[in-house]
Amino acid sequence: MASSPAAASNISAWVKPKSCHPSTSSSSAPSSALDLGSRSFHKPTGRPNINCSLHTPSVLHFPKHTSSSSTGVSPIKTTTLPKEKLDFSSSVSTQWNFLQSAAAMALDAVENALVAREARHPLPKTADPTVQIAGNFAPVPEQPVRHSLTVDGRIPDCIQGVYTRNGANPLHEPVAGHHLFDGDGMVHAVRFKDGEASYACRFTETQRLVQEREFGRPVFPKAIGELHGHSGIARLLLFYARGLFGLVDHSQGTGVANAGLVYFNRRLLAMSEDDLPYHILVTPSGDLETVERYDFDGQLRSTMIAHPKVDPVSGEMFALSYDVVQKPYLKYFRFSPNGDKSPDVEIPLAEPTMMHDFAITERFVVVPDQQVVFKLQEMITGGSPVVYDKNKTSRFGVLDKNATDASGMRWIDAPDCFCFHLWNAWEEPQTNEVVVIGSCMTPADSIFNECDDGLKSVLSEIRLNLNTGNSTRRPILPESEQVNLEAGMVNRNRLGRKTQFAYLALAEPWPKVSGFAKVDLSTGKVSKFIYGEQRYGGEPLFLPRDPNSDREDDGYILVFVHDEKTWKSELQIVNAVNLQLEASVKLPSRVPYGFHGTFISSKELEKQA
Fold first, then answer.
1. Chain segment 90-100, per-residue pLDDT in tens
2. Is 412 left (phi over 0), alpha (psi -120 to 50) or beta?
C-alpha cells in the first residue's frame, strides 16, 4: 500500500542510528529473551519478493517524536545521522571516563563492522522491517490529549471510563532485523465521559526506551528480529560488553511492555513476558503517564507473562513466569485482590518452553506445555533459538489454584496442539473434564520463523479428562465456515466459567484483521462484523453493559479500525447482541494495528493508586 498524502504529512524520516552509551550494568533479575542470541539479519540490496499482506509499499519513515509542553511529558530527543556510518557518540558520552569512552569507540567499531557484514545478506520476512512494520504496522509519534472528538452515532450512556490498547511502536529505525513483536510499547487511550470522547497515545517509559532515547538509536538486542545465529551471539556479546563498561544498564529490565494490559489492584499494568510489568497512570485529563517498573512492592523478582488472569469472583490475579536460560523454567504464582503475592510454585519442565498464555477455571490453572521451545544451542550452528520440536508431545497441566507446590499437577497429552492464546476454560463436573477454548495455530512457529505453509488458526474445544488422563480436540466452526480466528476474548465477568460466546478477530488476510466474529461455542454458529473494503482492525474488546446482566452478550464491542484508503483511524462501538454499529469515534491521528487492550471504568479511574 502506497502511503497517501495524508500519511506522508503525518510522518517524517526515521531517525538514523547512532551509537550506544548510557551508564551502569548487570543483568536483569529474570532471564529474558535477551539471554538468547541473534540471527544474521541483514538489509536486502533489492526489493524483496515476499507474498504477505504485510508487504505493501513500506512506510519506512519514523515519526518525529515531540511532546507538548502542556502535557508534562519530556520531549523525545532525536538526531539525524549520516547514512553511511553509525556514529554512536551522543550527549551521554560526556558522562563517561576515559576508559568508558575508549571502550565505546572500540565497541562501536565492532558494531559498524557487524552491520556492514549483515547488509550483505537478505532478511527473512519474519525479520524484515520493510515487511514487519509496513503500512499501518508502521509507528506513530506520541499524541497529547485531544478532547471533544467527532462522533458519528451516539455513545451508549453506560460507557464511562477509558479504553486502552497496547501495541508495538518502535521509537527508532531498526539497524538490522526487526519483528513486529520487537517494537517499543505504546498505549492508545480513548476516554469516555458523558457522551464525549478524548484520545491520547504515549510510549510506556521502559528502561530500554529511556536509554535508547538518550542514545538516539537501538541499543538493546531485539528478542525475535535479531537474536538468531552467529550474528545474534555477536550482538549479545556487544550488549553485555557495553554493560560491563557501564555504557548501558540492563539491571532494570530489558522488556518493551508492548503486549498485554490489565487493570488490577488500582493500577493499569503494561506487560511483555520478558520483564516486570509497568504501572501506567491515566490522568484526570485522559493522558497517560508511566509511573514505574512495578514489582508489587518488592514481591515480584521475575518476569511475568503478558496474559495474567483476574478471577471475576475472587478478585485474585494469577500469573506465570518462564525462563529461557536456567531452571526453574516455569513458575506459577497468584496475587490477592490487595496485591499480596503468593510464594512461587516451581513447575518442572525438561526444557524452556514458550508460555505466552494460560487459562483458569473456578478451581484450577491450566498450563500449556507445547512444541515451541527455546534451544539456545541452535544459535551456534546459525539457527533460531525458537524451535518447533516435532518430537515433543504437547500437553496441558491442570493444577489447583491454591497449590503450594507442583506435586498435584496433572499432565494430559494433547498431540500436535499449539495455542498461542487461550480464550477461556471451565470445569464440567458431570464428566470430570476441564474444557479449554483456544485457537490452535499451524505451523506452530510460523510467527517466528519463515515457512512456506500458510498460517491457520482454528478455534478449538479441547477436553481434558481428569479421570482417564486423555484429551479430545474438535474445531468449533464447521469446515465450511473455517476462518482464522485470533485475538479476542469472552465476557471477562465470566472468565473461568462456562461461556456461550467468544468475540474474536477475523485474522484474514493474515496478519491483518478484516472484522470480528461472535462465535457460539456450543453450536459453532458464527456471526461476522466486517469493517469494509480496505478497512482493518485488531482485537475486539467486549464491554458488558451491566455487570449484573443475566444475558452473557449484553454489551458492546470496542475496536480500533483503520481505513487504508483515507489513512484515517476510528474507534467503533458495536452492539454485541445484534452486531449493529452504535457509534464511531473519529481519531485525530493514525492508530497502528496492535495487540491487547482493556477497559477501566470511571469508578475505577477515581481509585487509581
1. 445 567 888 87
2. beta
